[in-house]
Amino acid sequence: MSDPSSINGGVVVAMVGKDCVAIACDLRLGSQSLGVANNFEKIFHYGHVFLGLSGLATDVTTLSEVFRYKTNLYKLKEERHIEPETFTQLVSSTLYEKRFGPYFTGPVVAGINSKTGKPYIAGFDLIGCIDEAKDFVVSGTASDQLFGMCESLYEPGLEPEDLFETISQALLNAVDRDAISGWGAAVYIITKDKVVKRYLKTRQD
Amino acid sequence: MDIILGIRVKDSVILASSKAVTRGISVLKADDDKTRVLSDHTLMSFTGEPGDSVQFAEYIQANIQLYSIRENCELSPHAASSFIRQELAKSIRSRKPFQVNVLVGGYDTRKESPHLYQIDYLGTKVDLPYAAHGYAGFYTFSLLDHHYRPDMNTSEALKLLKMCIEELERRMPMDFKGVLVKVVDKDGVREIEDF
Amino acid sequence: MAGLSFDNYQRNQYLTCSTNTKAQATSTGTTIVGVKYDGGVVIAADTRSTQGPIVANKNCAKLHKMAPKIWCAGAGTAADTEEVTKLIGSNLELHSLYTSREPRVVAALQMLKQHLFKYQGHVGAYLIVAGVDPTGAHLFSIHAHGSTDVGYYQSLGSGSLAAMAVLESKWKQGLTREEAIELAADAIEAGIWNDLGSGSNVDVCVMEIGKDAQYLRNYRTPNVREPKQQSYKFARGTTGILSERVLDICQVEEQTVDIELEA
């Protein structure tokens, strides 16, 4: 067994556009070189906040459940959905709580603040260091490739439909250079009053 | 090198598990049952560290049975699999983790649909049409990828399973003493005699 | 702090036992400096954060506010510098509320070093603490194991050698505010250009006796990216879609109700 964060493989990426955000993931779950499932989604949503989790699959599931629990309690206490900015702090403190025994995940938060209408994305390392970016965040086993793709393809102020093409092409071409990512992809395009989820046509090798 | 395989088809789930128990260079048993019935419509097969696996399986079995006695309600396969995953995810964080991989096959009587879950010792859970643990997957997934259709019936699935087992007998370096095959459908769990 | 949870420690020990790889946490490769001058103190930092050889963020903020007039520059494990300054910052505010006094830099220093010493270097925060309080302007540095230094100028992080070279050659007693800012920024630039772990921009914070602290985010930006000459926008419909679904996310409705107030 090698590095826990690259046993199962997988990537997540998020981008900001004009009054919209996009978040995308691949669908592979593997055990080293063996592909086990092509329906393992790494993006979850809590109200209008979206969370992508790449890394060790067991921790992806565990954390998705932890945040479901925490956001549900938040909703009961506050009588409103959690906002992306608040959720980012929640993710950070939840991960840092396990500073000396971390969950092996690379979370990505994406959403639009329902009050201000401001698009928001953030990334984290495995112990909760927040990386607030105004353009894009990447995470997972093909993060190096994604950095390269996003850095060159991304431009600010894209409309939802153009943002979809840009994030999809960035993801698709990145995972094709990673043996343990790919096997399908899901993209969420988030605008203030509509969320569209699309499954992409991808290579199956 | 235990073999456990599972196939989910239109209205049933089939779990197959090798009958051999080996320790070092010896085969100790040739009619082992590596499955436990969790409830009327849920069956679990398991492999892993010899002590851990049975201990874990029976702990799960007992707790799921306790639940149905207390609540007077059968746990759905999905709920049962979530419980098992949670136990394994907790275990991997403990001083001595359970080294157990399981398959959960079940028929959801409320939704009237069969389900198959693969869960490994880390707590990685996936819902799959066909699944295996250990080396069995390397030999059989290509066959299953090619021949599997979601609308197969039980007898067609058994035929496909037979192909897989024959492949394993041909290619695996060790005699695993055949497989024990159990089917879960709307009528519950039943064993397929002399498969 | 109630204490950090070690729940997963055993598990990870087990998970990583058969490898020599270590999960990569974001670290602020970093150059940070602090310079004292007549009537105040200034701290500065670069804005590059790294994960191994990858630049994770090109414009991150390494200057943390612990109290209105006590600021802290952090190097080392990014999450640790962030969390430790946040934690001690909170306790400092509680302490100042309790004592009805302005927080002192030595108090921050003591709380930070005791926390870091308790964790025996495992909380990887290397800090330069500076600020003004009723006793004057102060400048300190702290290492992850809990040791502290006092001085007229300090530098820390992977670019500390480059920065210190500048500080050693240019610092003198009796600097003015402007001279101190320029010296600090020059020292950071030495790190930006000569250290691989540091880069991008210079952040500065000036704390002058009797004045509010001045946070000068991106005080220097010597690495502005050239705008793209061409667009890589794809024609709509380039990407193949298998299926599409509009998610029904619960809508938040607002309603204004007129309430008649009785006189």
TrEMBL record, chain A:
It comes from the Eukaryota. The keyword Nucleus applies. Its main location: nucleus. It is found in: Nucleus. One of its GO terms (biological process) is proteasomal ubiquitin-independent protein catabolic process. Keywords: Cytoplasm, Nucleus, Proteasome. One of its GO terms (cellular component) is nucleus. The keyword Cytoplasm applies. Transmembrane segments: none annotated. The 26S proteasome consists of a 20S proteasome core and two 19S regulatory subunits. The 20S proteasome core is composed of 28 subunits that are arranged in four stacked rings, resulting in a barrel-shaped structure. The two end rings are each formed by seven alpha subunits, and the two central rings are each formed by seven beta subunits. The catalytic chamber with the active sites is on the inside of the barrel. This is LAFE_0B01684g1_1. It comes from Lachancea fermentati (Zygosaccharomyces fermentati).
Automatic annotation (TrEMBL), chain B:
This is Proteasome subunit beta. The keyword Nucleus applies. It is found in: Cytoplasm; Nucleus. One of its GO terms (biological process) is proteasomal ubiquitin-independent protein catabolic process. It holds the Pfam family Proteasome. One of its GO terms (cellular component) is proteasome core complex, beta-subunit complex. Component of the proteasome, a multicatalytic proteinase complex which is characterized by its ability to cleave peptides with Arg, Phe, Tyr, Leu, and Glu adjacent to the leaving group at neutral or slightly basic pH. The proteasome has an ATP-dependent proteolytic activity. Its main location: cytoplasm. Belongs to the peptidase T1B family. Keywords: Cytoplasm, Nucleus, Proteasome. The 26S proteasome consists of a 20S proteasome core and two 19S regulatory subunits. The 20S proteasome core is composed of 28 subunits that are arranged in four stacked rings, resulting in a barrel-shaped structure. The two end rings are each formed by seven alpha subunits, and the two central rings are each formed by seven beta subunits. The catalytic chamber with the active sites is on the inside of the barrel. Component of the proteasome complex.
UniProtKB/TrEMBL annotation, chain C:
This is proteasome endopeptidase complex. It is an enzyme of class 3 (hydrolase). The keyword Hydrolase applies. It catalyses: Cleavage of peptide bonds with very broad specificity. PROSITE patterns: PROTEASOME_BETA_1 (PS00854), PROTEASOME_BETA_2 (PS51476). GO terms for molecular function: threonine-type endopeptidase activity. The active site is at residue 30. It comes from the Eukaryota. GO terms for biological process: proteasomal ubiquitin-independent protein catabolic process; proteasome-mediated ubiquitin-dependent protein catabolic process. Residues 222-257 form the Proteasome beta subunit C-terminal domain. Its EC number is 3.4.25.1.
